[in-house]
Give the backbone structure.
Amino acid sequence: MSAIANAFTKIFWGLMLEFLDFKIIQFDILPDFIGYFIIISGLGNLIAFSHHYKKVRMLAIILAILSIPEYFIGEINILEGFVSPTSTFLILMASSILSLIHLAFIYFLLQGCIELANHHQNQTLAKTTKNFQTNYIIIIMGVVILTPFALNIPESQAITLITVSAVASFVVYIMILFLMWRYRYSLER
């Protein structure tokens, strides 16, 4: 397996671990920070191809550090009604900031992929990645902007908004996984 294929295999599995939540009685068996550390280990083979991968590595370190407290504290559900308005605001702000850091993480990951595809003269893959990157940013920014409104609209509309946001986020994340797997095989040679 080439160094590039190995790197994208690690990135794929790291993203998969970060994406999946396997819990037994509220205990996360596969914590997100392990996924980020796997991603960081894969990025070492890619930094020579694009300076964007250095940014991705730094953002992965930040995300790993920020995900450690969540592992021990657990997620707080603001829709359960046990949280004060001030705490709800702070939780939403922290969640939005974390989402924006993750957005930057994916943005720079895809920027690096575009440069790597161009370096290997795979213009089709570079163009596909650029189109996906644009759609990803639009969808995730929409989710980040609209989610706080779920607290101020009728429950039926809030459920619809949250469901649409969750489905959209799920779809783009699955697409990222497929894209990383495609890079693994397209640039293996």
Observations:
- The two ends are 9 Å apart (CA to CA).
- The mean pLDDT is 85.
- Strands lie at 23-24, 27-28.
